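In the laboratory, one determines a bound structure by crystallizing the protein with its ligand and collecting diffraction data. In a computational setting the workflow is compressed into a single prediction: the sequence and the ligand go in, and a structural description comes out. We illustrate the idea with iron/sulfur cluster.
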Amino acid sequence: MECMIAKPSKGSAGKTGLWRTFKPIYDENKCNNCLLCWLYCPENAIDVVDGKISIDYDYCKGCGVCAKICAKKAIEMVREEEL
Ligand code: SF4
Ligand code: SF4
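The predicted complex, in structure-token form:
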């Protein structure tokens, strides 16, 4: 059986990275590559590169959905000014 997943196209709302107050910081060592963050990101700002996730900060609007959905706590939201 084929599985179809509808996702928004990246950039359909412009460069949403400019909206960001909090930035998701990804810890590859905690990640188990479940790809739930990729599935749930409303801006399609998470890419999968060589089986690992990569956040495209040009389009990440800092909503925090990826951090909330991650059971491994591999994504932490950090205020932009603190970086
Ligand atoms: S949800 Fe968390 S564990 Fe799953 S791929 Fe994303 S960062 Fe990794
Ligand atoms: S914070 Fe996470 S879920 Fe939200 S736009 Fe950025 S990468 Fe996607």
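The pocket of iron/sulfur cluster (ligand 1) is lined by residues 31-37, 53, 69-70, 72, 74-75 (CB under 6 Å). Keep in mind that any predicted model is a hypothesis to be tested, not a measurement.
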